[in-house]
């Protein structure tokens, strides 16, 4: 495990938050839940590949004024670990993001949330295959309990609903995005020691560069970005919350407690998604919501305990 970098001096007001991994990871899940809900809502209106590219360009430009000095200082380290930096950019930003937005053009939110619930298992699989980091029994049990809670919420407490769910090409694409993000999460533990703003801004910039040809191809096909209210609202949310803040928080959470203990927090995404449906869409709270929330929280507490560390 690499040595933890010092908290960013340029973000002194957030120094306390920078050392609260559970809060950071919970906020990450909240922002990503909103991202899935919003991405599904604008499917067919906002081009997915262009949205992905603009998302990372915008996030990179937001961070650049704060990261410029750190990038210059850490450039020798970045250059020495360029293959790893490109791998992080491709798996965590370019491939994962473009594929998930594209998939949501063809699949529904229910299927996407079901597939995303397998995210912690993919993180554990990559950590085991690449670095020999096994799950402890506590981590495995915690993931299983929180997964049961996720399914309870999504399936409204009726697990027989699983038999009636049909998967399509969009589901396969979304599974590929989750698999890619699991690899990113595992690789993050091998990041070189550098300022976190250097890491996040550099990988965002490379991710946007990798997406440029795909966005250009999409525009050449006549699928262009329309600068209306829906588009602008979407861009503001994904750039500020789902990208800049979420990835800063997620990366820091992994650095502080490791990928296997951080991964179960991904199960909070459908929890927050269901809460958004209750608050914003008028869905009625039901008993299965409370049971699901309790299971997810119990699983996260069990899996993220310090005593369960194996990686």
In short:
This protein is mostly helical. The protein has helices at 21-41, 48-80, 82-103, 109-116, 119-131, 137-154, 169-187, 196-220, 229-257, 259-262, 268-280, 287-303. Mean pLDDT is 86; it is low at 7-11 and 307-311.
Q: What can you tell me about this protein's structure?
A:
The chain is an all-alpha fold. It is built from 12 helices and no strands. The chain has helices spanning 21-41, 48-80, 82-103, 109-116, 119-131, 137-154, 169-187, 196-220, 229-257, 259-262, 268-280, 287-303. Helix 2 (48-80) runs parallel beside helix 9 and helix 3 (82-103) runs antiparallel to helix 7. It is globular and about 55 Å long. The model is unreliable at 7-11 and 307-311 (pLDDT under 50).
């Amino acid at each position: 495990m690499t040595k933890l970098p010092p908290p960013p001096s340029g973000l002194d007001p957030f120094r306390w938050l920078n050392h609260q991994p559970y809060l950071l990871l919970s906020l990450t899940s909240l922002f990503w839940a909103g991202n899935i809900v919003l991405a599904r809502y604008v499917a067919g209106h906002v081009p997915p590949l262009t949205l992905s590219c603009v998302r990372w360009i915008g996030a990179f430009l937001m961070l650049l004024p704060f990261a410029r000095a750190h990038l210059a200082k850490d450039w020798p380290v970045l250059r020495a670990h360029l293959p790893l930096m490109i791998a992080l950019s491709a798996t965590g930003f370019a491939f994962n993001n473009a594929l998930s937005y594209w998939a949501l053009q063809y699949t529904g939110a229910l299927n996407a949330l079901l597939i995303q619930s397998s995210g912690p298992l993919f993180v554990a699989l990559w950590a085991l295959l690449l670095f020999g980091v096994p799950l402890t029994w506590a981590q495995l049990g915690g993931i299983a309990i929180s997964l049961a809670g996720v399914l309870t919420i999504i399936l409204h407490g009726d697990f027989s609903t699983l038999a009636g769910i049909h998967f399509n090409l969009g589901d396969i694409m979304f599974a590929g995005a989750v698999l890619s993000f699991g690899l990113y999460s595992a690789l993050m533990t091998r990041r070189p020691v550098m300022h976190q703003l250097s890491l996040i801004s550099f990988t965002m910039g490379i991710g946007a560069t990798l997406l440029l040809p795909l966005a250009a191809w999409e525009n050449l096909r006549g699928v262009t970005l329309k600068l209306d209210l829906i588009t602008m609202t979407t861009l503001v949310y994904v750039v500020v919350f789902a990208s800049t803040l979420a990835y800063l928080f997620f990366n820091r959470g992994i650095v502080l407690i490791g990928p296997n203990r951080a991964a179960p927090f991904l199960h909070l995404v459908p929890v927050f998604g269901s809460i958004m449906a209750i608050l914003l869409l008028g869905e009625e709270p039901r008993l299965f919501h409370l049971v699901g929330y309790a299971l997810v929280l119990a699983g996260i507490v069990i899996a993220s305990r310090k005593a369960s560390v194996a990686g």
